[in-house]
Design a protein that fits this description.
141 residues; Thioredoxin domain containing 9; 5 helices; mainly alpha
């Protein structure tokens, strides 16, 4: 019986909190609608220009990302190219793989399906990386 009372009290508190939050959101939306209704033509034109400028900037950013290879999953042929890719992008996901292992091929489909702009998805075969540890294609590293 005590548990039912506790659950009932909790549900009432939750209901009140939800109702208060809903009222606050509704008041905020009403004030925004009222502001828009009271705008004159000049203010609406400035708002339109500001939005158009933001859309142009977003399109320009997308074009820049496309030129850097974002939105596609591709192989980097050399270590030098790898460092160039990393320097040009803020976010890079690189799949280091070996052709000789099955597990390396398991990651291909998820990466190939990534079309996110702002993150560069690449792959690099381990044997293209300089250094004693990766010169061979053995499974012991």
């Amino acid at each position: 019986m005590e548990a039912d009372a506790s659950v009932d009290m909790f549900s009432k508190v939750l209901e009140n909190q939800l109702l208060q939050t809903t009222k606050l959101v509704e008041e905020h939306l009403d004030s925004e609608i009222q502001k828009l209704d009271q705008m004159d033509e000049d203010e609406l034109e400035r708002l339109k220009e500001k939005r158009l400028e933001a859309l142009k900037k977003a399109q320009q950013q997308k074009q820049e990302w496309l030129s850097k290879g974002h939105g596609e999953y591709r192989e980097i042929p050399s270590e030098r190219d790898f460092f160039q890719e990393v320097k040009e992008s803020k976010k890079v996901v690189c799949h280091f793989y070996r052709d000789s292992t099955f597990s390396g091929n398991l990651m291909e489909p998820p990466f190939q399906s990534q079309k996110k702009f702002g993150t560069n998805f690449t792959k690099l075969e381990k044997k293209t990386i300089r250094g004693k540890k990766y010169d061979s294609d053995s499974d012991d590293d």
